[in-house]
TrEMBL record:
Keywords: Flavoprotein, Membrane, Oxidoreductase, Transmembrane, Transmembrane helix. It catalyses: [thioredoxin]-dithiol + NADP(+) = [thioredoxin]-disulfide + NADPH + H(+). Gene3D superfamilies: FAD/NAD(P)-binding domain. Residues 10-302 form the FAD/NAD(P)-binding domain. The lineage of its organism: Bacteria, Bacillati, Actinomycetota, Actinomycetes, Kineosporiales. It holds the Pfam family Pyr_redox_2. The keyword Transmembrane helix applies. This is Thioredoxin reductase.
Amino acid sequence: MDSEQLDEQYDAVVVGGGAAGLAGAIALARMRRSVLVVDSGQPRNAPADGIHNLLGREGVPPRELVAAGRAELAGYGGSVVEGRVTSLRRSSGDGEPLRFVVVLDDGRTTTARRLLLAHSGTDVLPPVPGLRELWGSRVLHCPFCHGWEVRGRSVAVLSTGPVTAHAATLWRSVASRVVVLSHTGPEVEASQRQELEAAGVEFVTGEVASLEPVGDDDGGVRVRLASGRTLEVGAVVAASQVRVDTSLTAALGVDVTDVEVMGVVAATGVVVADPTGATSIPGVWAAGNAAAPMAVVPAVTAAGMQAGAAMTMDLAREDLAAAAAARTELHDDEMAGAAR
C-alpha cells in the first residue's frame, strides 16, 4: 500500500489505472489539471503475454504498458497511488460546484471535482478444471488479440453458449484445424454445422472434464472428456462473462446495464455512458472495461483520452462560471459601498 499523503482536493480522481484510466489522466494533466489515479495493480489483461493491435507498441506486456503510462503521467505532474477506492459520494449540494469525496481502502480520503470510472471487470470463466490456470496463455477468447500467436496450429472451441459457430468461423482464418467441443453449449444449427463441416471443422460431443498443459511455454493443451477420451490441440477458445463491480456506481446513482451478445448476457454492471464517457450523473465519466467490457486496449485508450478531454472542458466551464460569479459579487459589493 502506498503511504503517500493525498492532496486535499484534485481536479479529477481516476478510479483504475489501466490503459483507459491512464490515458484519461494524461489528457487532463497535459491541460495542467491536478489528477490522482488510484489503482489496485491488478489489470484484467495481466495473464496475457502481450498486447496486440496497439500501433507502435505491438506485443508489449500489459504491466510494462502500465508502467510506461504511469511514468508519462508523472512527467505531466499527475499522481498514482496503489490501493482501492472503497467509497465515492457527492458532497456538494444542489446549485453548488460539483464535489465528490473519495475514500481509499487504507482510510485516506480526498475530494475530487470530477470522477473518471475506469475500473476493470472480472472474467467469470467456464467451470472446467484447469481452465483458469491456462487463461490468457493457452485458453484464449479473442482471435484479434491472440490469433496470430497460434497461427497454423490446431484450436478447440469450447461451446458454452450461442457464439460457437461464430467463433469457429473466425478462428478458421488462423488455425490449421478447428475442433468444436460440444461441452454444455446448445446444439449448433444444422445449416451452420453443415457449412463448418464442409470447411473442415470437426465436432466432438461430450462434456469436457479437464484441461491440462502439454509441453513447455509454447506447448499446447490436452483436453480430457468425461468419457475418458483425450485430444491435444495448440489452444482452447473459451468465452467468459464479464462482471463489472457496481459497488461504486450504485453509491453514486450511476446508471448501469447488462450487455447481451446473441441473446446471452455477456457482461453485467456495465456503466451507461455517452460517446464522451459522460454518465447519467453530472461530473462522473466512465471509460475502459467499466463502460465497454469487450473493447480491446487501443479502443479503451482512445475512450479514456476522449473522457479526459471532455472532463477538461467541463472543468474549464466551471472555472469560467466561478470567475463570472466572483466578478458579479465584487461589482455588487462596490455598488453597495458607493451607495453608502
